Amino acid sequence: LSIYSLTYVHSYSNTYQYKTVEYKTCDCFFIVKLDQKPTVIAQDDVAEVQWVNIHNINITQFAFSSTQQAIEHLKNQANSRQEMVHQAQRLGGY
């Protein structure tokens, strides 16, 4: 992959149980921009790979609350950006 932009989004704490051990984690999320869309092939424990619009993501499909929070955060950012563009268009500045 050829990455031309890497942006830190947010970190969330998480707790999950594996067998008899409770693990505390800090899950970090980033936005990565690529030069081109890569060809991705599902392998090993990955059944399928999909490219989807963030607004079409159902957060309840993710097991970890940290991932759900990160997707909600990104959706809110995208909505804020869209609203700013719409306001600028209404004011004739875009």
From TrEMBL:
Gene3D superfamilies: Nucleoside Triphosphate Pyrophosphohydrolase
UniProt name for this protein: DNA mismatch repair protein MutT
